[in-house]
Amino acid sequence: MQQALDFLLHHIELVVFLTVLAEQVGLPVPGIPLLLAAGAVAGEGQANLAVLTCISVAACLLGDMVWYELGLHRGRQALSLLCRISLEPDACVRRTENFFVAHGVRALVLAKFIPGLSTLAPALAGLFKVSLGRFFLFNGAGSLLWSLSFLLLGYVFSDQIGYVADLAVRFGTTAGIIIAVSLAGYVVFKYFNRQKLLRELRVARITPAELKQLLDDGQQSVIVDLRGNVDHVADPYTIPGALRISAEELEHRHHDIPRDRDIILFCACPNEATAARMALMLKRRGISRVRPLLGGIDVWRELAYPLELVIAKENAVGTSKISS
C-alpha cells in the first residue's frame, strides 16, 4: 500500500490522465476517488491544481471524442457496444435518452455527474449529429465542471483525505481486500440477478423462425417494438406490423393489451433484457400469452427476415388502442 501511495505522489499527473481517460472510454476504474486524492496531493503542495485540472479535462475530451465519433459514424453499433459493457444494459440507453431529450446538448454539461450517462452522452451527441464545435463547447464545460469539482473537494479536505490514506497504509492489504471484495460482490450480484430474470423466461421465448412462420400464416399476433426514440434514430427499421411502444409506455398501457392473442415483445438489448422484463410485468398482470423474441431485432436482421422503415412515431404510439 505504501508503494502505491508513493507511486501516486510521484506520478500524479500521469495517473490522473490514464485513470480519467480509462473511465471515459467505459472501463470500470475509480475516476472520482482518484480526483479527490489528486486534489489532496495538490492541497499538500505536491502538485499544481491548475495543471491537474487541465490534464483531467484533456483526458475527458479525448475519451469522449472516441464515443462521439462512434456515435456519429456507427450509431447502432456504438449503442449496442455501450449496452453490452453496462451492468444494466436494459436501462442504460433509455435513461440517457430521456435525459438527453429533456435537456438537449446541455445534457453534456451534467452527464458526468450522473452514473451511466457519462459514456453514453457523447455517443448520443454523435448520433444526433451535434456539430463538433457545439460538442466541444458543452462537453468541455461539463468536463471542466466535473474535474474541478472533485479536485477542489480533495484540495479543501486534503487533511481529512490524508488521514484516510494513513489508515489505508496502516491496514494495508486488509483494506485493499475489503474494497476488492465489495466491488466484486456488486458485479456478481448484478450478473446473477440478470441471469435469474432471463431464466424465468427462457422456456417462453419465441424464435425468429417461429415468429416469421406466424406472420407468413397470417396469425393475428401483436408485435411490440420496445425500443426508444434513440434506438430508432440509430436504426429506423422494425419488424413488419410492429407497434412502437416504449417500455415506459407499455407499463401504463397494459390494460389495452388483448388477452386473446399472442403478444410478441422485442428490443435491441443484450439477451433481450428489456423484452424479458416487460414480459414478466405483463404476466404478473394476467396476460399469459406473451413471449420475448429470442435475440431481438439483431438476430431477426441477421437471418435476413423482412424489415420495414419506420415512417413516423405517431403510427405506433398514442393514436390508437393496441388491440385495434
TrEMBL record:
Main location: membrane
Keyword Cell membrane assigned: yes
Pfam families: Rhodanese, VTT_dom
Organism this protein belongs to: Nitrospira japonica
One annotated Gene Ontology cellular component of this protein: plasma membrane
Protein name: Rhodanese domain protein
Keyword Ubl conjugation appears in the UniProt entry: no
Membrane topology: Multi-pass membrane protein
Record-linked PROSITE patterns: RHODANESE_3 (PS50206)
Cellular compartments annotated: Cell membrane
PANTHER family membership: ALKALINE PHOSPHATASE LIKE PROTEIN, UNDECAPRENYL PHOSPHATE TRANSPORTER A
Source taxonomy: Bacteria, Pseudomonadati, Nitrospirota, Nitrospiria, Nitrospirales
SMART domains tied to this protein: RHOD
Domain Rhodanese: 217-309
